[in-house]
Amino acid sequence: xxxxxxxxQSATLSVPQDGSKLPLMEQFYTLQGEGxxxxxxxxxxxxxxxxxxxxxxxxxxxxxxxxxxxTEVEKxxxxxxxxxxxxxxxxxxxxxxxxxxxLTSQLKDHGFETFLETSAAYPxxxxxxxxxISPKKFKAPRPDILPKAGELKVIVFxxxxxxxxxxxxxxxxxxxxxxxxxxxSKSEQMLPLIVEYVKENPKWQISLQxxxxxxxx
Length: 217
Fold this sequence. Notes:
globular; TIM Barrel; single chain; 6 helices
């Protein structure tokens, strides 16, 4: 078994099953930089732990849950409540490694909208106003979660990703937004291809990592 994957699975087991404590990597107030909600003020809660292992991941420090402190949900919500934004983005790592029912319930009790960013490789938990699924080739998304998404955001690293994106979009309800997003290090090569692809397949839209252009978190 892959060493990173075995580490992540053992780390996940130490997290309370009720989700009362979660491995918190960071939380911060910024603008949503990608997808449907681009430009919206949002508070991000990034959880540690991921066993998918995308080689182009730009937050590899999130993979090992053991290096991120188990933090009480009440403290996470208390910190989020200090800021004006009512949109909360739960991301990772892979947040669905954990039971998110308690975290999202408490956030909603404080009047927040809850947005999830996930690969959809694990069972869905939590109460959500919006789900962004970014499926990864290394671990297939669960077919029971895909129809519940508000958006499907596929990262384009090479030409084969267009066909792979279509495979996951073909059976989705029409209301789900479809985005193609160039992997940051390959933007110069992939973006012209994405532009032409969207022109030929207008059900897709382009998502850019605008926060990187703006030099914000």
